[in-house]
């Protein structure tokens, strides 16, 4: 069996474009991969266009390790977000092909299940005005949908520091959410790498009374020493890693034990197997995995197979019940979240299929998403 063709599709929404990659073999089997590139869709498409004849076409989709190593090692340039995302889309698709060829869900090819359901948390639910009343009402809807955990960034367009008025406003939003969901539901506080260590530490002390399960990306991702400085004085568990794209770039974070949860995004980290390697390394330090996932159903499917088969998994991020819920119809097949959990996937491969009719109805949009712009949380067109 050889890879004979690659085709890309871009699904557009007002705030994100999702790139789907269909990999087809000479025996008629096909698999799907996906990545949500934040403002870099053309770069991903360009990489795949150049990589296909040199690295991908003609290769055996069962030789995933060889294919990934070839794409990673033979470009000479240091792999970053673009290359690792492209590798991930092809890698996911190859797992999908393998599962279909063997009539098995992908997680059964990764060592089998270590749990019988997968805990999820909601994101993308707070597309409302930044008032306590609006956040309270939106959080209620998340719990009504059955989720037992939810994440949000209450800090507006904050960068490095917050003025006192803005700090108090942000804390009032967290207070409103905790009041809405009660003491038993997990809240996860996203900082999006906004703050310097001093501000991250001060805000985290204020947040302690709301008992969040973690603070995420308290400082920008480039400086592991700054993260370590913050971690030493923050009493809440720390999650980070969505903007770290190789195992090598995680080394300082892991070895300094500056984080409690690693959030590598499978769609930007070279795929499922590479993320499994990171998880095995992290487990040696008793660090848990909580993969970042702002993608559509294919990225979610890959994450579910990873979660099903990874012992040190904590919880899975999920956007598509609240932001652009229709995207689930573009590549249907995933289990739904029920009472806060996904069931294990039970279909061959990744378990999702392409619906080209839905994809055609939602062409690529001219989107530039800016997390440091006022009202970004509305997730509306920010061109």
TrEMBL record:
<dbReference type="InterPro" id="IPR013341">
    <property type="entry name" value="Mandelate_racemase_N_dom"/>
</dbReference>
<dbReference type="InterPro" id="IPR029017">
    <property type="entry name" value="Enolase-like_N"/>
</dbReference>
<protein>
    <submittedName>
        <fullName>Dehydratase</fullName>
    </submittedName>
</protein>
<dbReference type="InterPro" id="IPR029065">
    <property type="entry name" value="Enolase_C-like"/>
</dbReference>
<dbReference type="GO" id="GO:0016829">
    <property type="term" value="F:lyase activity"/>
</dbReference>
<keyword id="KW-0456">Lyase</keyword>
<dbReference type="InterPro" id="IPR013342">
    <property type="entry name" value="Mandelate_racemase_C"/>
</dbReference>
<feature type="domain" description="Mandelate racemase/muconate lactonizing enzyme C-terminal">
    <location>
        <begin position="132"/>
        <end position="237"/>
    </location>
</feature>
<dbReference type="Pfam" id="PF02746">
    <property type="entry name" value="MR_MLE_N"/>
</dbReference>
<dbReference type="InterPro" id="IPR034593">
    <property type="entry name" value="DgoD-like"/>
</dbReference>
<dbReference type="Pfam" id="PF13378">
    <property type="entry name" value="MR_MLE_C"/>
</dbReference>
<dbReference type="InterPro" id="IPR036849">
    <property type="entry name" value="Enolase-like_C_sf"/>
</dbReference>
């Amino acid at each position: 069996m050889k890879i004979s063709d690659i085709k890309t599709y871009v699904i557009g929404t007002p705030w994100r474009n999702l790139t789907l990659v269909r990999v087809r073999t000479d025996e008629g089997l096909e698999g799907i991969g996906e990545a949500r590139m934040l403002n870099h869709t053309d770069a991903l498409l360009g990489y795949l266009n150049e990589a296909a004849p040199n690295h991908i076409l003609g290769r055996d989709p069962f030789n995933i390790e060889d294919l990934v190593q070839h794409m990673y090692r033979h470009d000479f340039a240091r792999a970053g977000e673009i290359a690792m995302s492209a590798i991930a889309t092809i890698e996911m698709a190859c797992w999908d092909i393998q599962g279909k060829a063997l009539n098995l869900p992908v997680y059964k090819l990764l060592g089998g299940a270590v749990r019988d359901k997968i805990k999820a948390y909601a994101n993308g639910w707070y597309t409302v005005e930044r008032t306590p009343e609006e956040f309270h009402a939106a959080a209620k809807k998340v719990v009504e949908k059955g989720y037992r955990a939810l994440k949000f960034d209450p800090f507006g367009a904050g960068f490095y520091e917050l003025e006192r008025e803005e700090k108090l406003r942000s804390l009032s939003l967290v207070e409103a959410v905790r009041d809405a969901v009660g003491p038993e539901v997990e809240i996860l506080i996203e900082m999006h790498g906004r703050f310097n260590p001093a501000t991250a530490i001060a805000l985290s002390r204020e947040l302690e009374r709301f008992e969040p399960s973690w603070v995420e990306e308290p400082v920008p991702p480039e400086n592991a020493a700054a993260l370590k400085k913050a971690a030493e004085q923050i009493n809440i568990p720390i999650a980070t890693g969505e903007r770290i794209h190789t195992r090598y770039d995680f080394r300082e974070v892991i070895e300094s034990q500056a984080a409690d949860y690693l959030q590598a995004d499978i769609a930007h980290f070279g795929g499922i197997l590479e993320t499994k390697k990171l998880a095995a390394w992290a487990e040696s330090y008793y660090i848990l995995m909580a993969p970042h996932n702002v993608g559509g159903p294919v990225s979610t499917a890959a994450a579910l197979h990873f979660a099903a088969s990874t012992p040190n998994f904590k919880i899975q991020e999920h956007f598509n019940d609240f932001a652009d819920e229709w995207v689930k119809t573009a590549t249907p097949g995933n289990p739904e979240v029920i009472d806060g959990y996904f069931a294990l996937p039970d279909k061959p491969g990744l378990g999702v299929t392409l619906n080209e009719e839905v994809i055609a109805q939602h062409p690529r949009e001219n989107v530039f998403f800016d997390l440091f712009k006022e009202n970004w949380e509305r997730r509306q067109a920010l061109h």
